Amino acid sequence: MNHTESIRSAHDRRGDATQIAILSHISDVDIATDLIGFVAAARSDGVPAFYWKKQSDDLAIAGLGRAWQTSASGTDRFRTTVAELARLRSLVTVESTSAWLDSPLLLGGFSFADEVATAPYWHGFAPARMTLPEVCLVRRAGRTAMIRNVRIHPDSDTERLALEIAKSAPPPWRETEHDADAGELVRHPTPTPEMWMTAVDDAVASIHRGDFAKLVMARACRVSVQGNLDLSQILHSLGSNETGCTVFSISGAAADFVGATPETLVSLSDGHLETHALAGTTPRGSSSDRDRHLRDALAASGKDRSEHDIVVRGILDDLGSLAHSLEVDPQPDVLTLKRVQHLRTSLRGRVAPHCHILDVVAALHPSPAVGGYPKKIAVGEIARREHFERGWYASPIGWTTLDGDGEFAVGLRSGVVDADQAWLFAGAGIVRDSDPRAEYLETEIKLRPMLAALGQT
What we know:
Shape: globular
Number of domains: 2
CATH class of the largest domain: Alpha Beta
CATH superfamily of the largest domain: Anthranilate synthase
Helix content: 25-40%
Number of strands: 23
Strand content: 25-35%
Distance between the termini: 53 Å
């Protein structure tokens, strides 16, 4: 392939001679190593990185470096981001020799609230941030493609750039540790269990007064260790233990936001939309009989079904102006994970041509599964009642193609990891029949994936 011609073509696409252009070169590569090793090498060198592995789709993504990035805040952050991605599309020339991948991927996410979180551990996590990485490795069904996004400046040496692309090799890879010992974990909950349960009591009283129908109340737990936390070990642990979830990691200024979420916010492909309502929770049983009993009790629970139906209704409200031909499961099924079981309803439909996945993300976020209902009231109540800043917790994390297809998950079962400490988050949906102690125990179960990944036995 003549890379020089592609670079010149990218040069010519610029509407302004002072603008950069970007050549996105995509090729199939023979790489069998775990993609976590590339992320580990990048983070050890201080390079920003993104990791995504959805086991049910056999899809893994590792994004390294930053060829282009857009950030935004405020109530128009989603609209601003979509506009910036449209501008980027006009600057990118795609050169693909891959047999199965024909678009570069934009990787990133959004915060729960519209404004910048001020807590130090959220430094570098803008309310909206999407990145075109310098190198992106994408693996699906045993095939791996490498995307190199090359910035072309007005004075770039096209022959030198073409030679660099032709000689390009996979990025650095580091052997990852599976059994590193960070030492004893010490927990520092915020707020105290008693304070949080009192706040749940207050929320239940507000629901009985008719202030709102549901409120998702979360809490934070800072964990400190004697040694250093190893990002690669954490990702390996989550991938091995939290089957059925999407494992993710995305870097901020210094720390990494990491988790294994069971909840897909939305996927969009060729106009076909799919989303899920995930609400209503029970633990796993200690035996198959006990497990079945808990699953049946969850399906029959009036309290859990009420909470779940609120989420379905909220999603239908939010999709009303965007989706058509919606198909909704007539009854929820039960999603069984390693530690918990959830009621789940799938919704599928079509969107209008040129609808970007971020248009759908903007409409859905925050869903009643992580915010409450009605949405605007719940968001205000969360800011008033919770004792920490959610930042990117319970928020959209994912990827999109240049054409606006892609997938976003909800950043749950997650935490911010930084050297010798981490901040973990978990929440529970509060409805009129909620019991504060039962809701607290539910958050304890939801903290366990990250606690186990950090080394708690």
